[in-house]
Amino acid sequence: MDEKSEISELFIPQTEQEKTALVEKDFMDVLKMVAPGTSIRAALDDLLRAEMGALIVIDNGNISSIYQKGFSIHSKFTAQKLTELAKMDGAIILSINTKKILYANSFLFPSPEISTKETGTRHKAAERTAKQTGAIVIAISERKKKITVYQGDKKYELQESSEVLRRAAETLQILEKQREGFTEAINNLNLLELQRMVTIKDVCGVIQKFEIIKKISDIVKRYLIELGKEGAIVSLRLKDLTKGLDKEEELLLKDYFGQNYLYSEKILEKMDFDFLLDPLNISRMIFEELHDKQVSPKGLRILSKTNILDRYISSLISNFQFLDKILLASDEDLLKIFQNEGMLSFFKEEIYSLREKLLIGKRI
């Protein structure tokens, strides 16, 4: 499988499970509630191991009209107590913060007019209740040995931590390859900027890498939510692979789009993965220019990699506008910025050192 196909597989849902994995941000909080390491997940896993079915509803204040309360419990939530109460028929009702078990042996009667794709009685009731009330409803199937979480129109089947960890590790491997490709692309752009030979194609190639890495990172972050405390190592590796990238992209966009960089950023956020795969799409949408047109950055990003003070960098960009003009400026014009020969000499040494590092392939 080539690299393009490998990445594509991350973004093309293959099953209903994969489709529901691409959930909206607000559903992430729901997954956090049932992540490994939480009390409620411990209880769910205990029920699954004991091959017991269960229907659990987290009361959001909207369910009172569709359930019969059953036995009043009103006691502190513990995994052991939930497991014991699940031996009874009916649903278990938890408080909105899941810290209390309110009722057990309760019966749900959501509207039968609400559509559902489920087949079992328990799962039909769970899906309809979630759709009708917006509450979080958890159904455990003793026959299929699966835990399904519902909220509103969303449905997600919890995976075993080992499976989620495997998928996270595979995604990290793809991310590592993309980071290597990004490093090569950004080093090439650095050198081209100092040689005053940058084209829109070069810039778009780097932007493409930025955005693909961000989208793959989002997938890993979702896995981390599912993994809970068991995702610590994955989290550390993700931070290592993405360290400094957001700031680097921001400086690059400021370099080529100036005050309009936020607008360009918004356009990029709206681009889906398939669209990003072709750098020509990026140049057409944010540059609105020919792909091979030569351009020059303001120099903010590359100059920030030197030891030149920020106030001098700001003055250079303010006076010369673009990096190529800064690099071609006469000593007389540069002295107006640095005001003394010593600072001018330091500036030249920094640019020379930067160029030499890039020529020998050293990361900056």
Explained architecture:
This protein is of the alpha+beta class. The protein folds into three domains: 123 residues, YojJ-like (1; 126 residues, Ferritin, CATH 1.20.1260; 60 residues. The chain is built from 18 helices and eight strands. Strands 1, 2, 3, 4, 5, 6, 7 and 8 form an eight-stranded mixed β-sheet that branches. Strand 7 and strand 8 form a beta hairpin. Helix 8 crosses helix 13 and helix 17 crosses helix 18. The longest helix is centred in the middle third of the chain and has 34 residues. The protein is elongated. About 3% of the residues have low confidence.
Structure, briefly:
With 364 residues, the chain is of the alpha+beta class.
Q: Work out the count of structural domains.
A: 3
Query: What is the top-level CATH class of the largest domain?
Result: Mainly Alpha
Radius of gyration: 28 Å
Distance between the termini: 33 Å
Estimate the global geometry from the Cα principal axes. elongated
CATH superfamily of the largest domain: DNA integrity scanning linker region
Helix content: 55-70%
What structural class results from the helix and strand content? alpha+beta
Number of strands: 8
Parts with pLDDT < 50 across at least 5 consecutive residues: 12-23
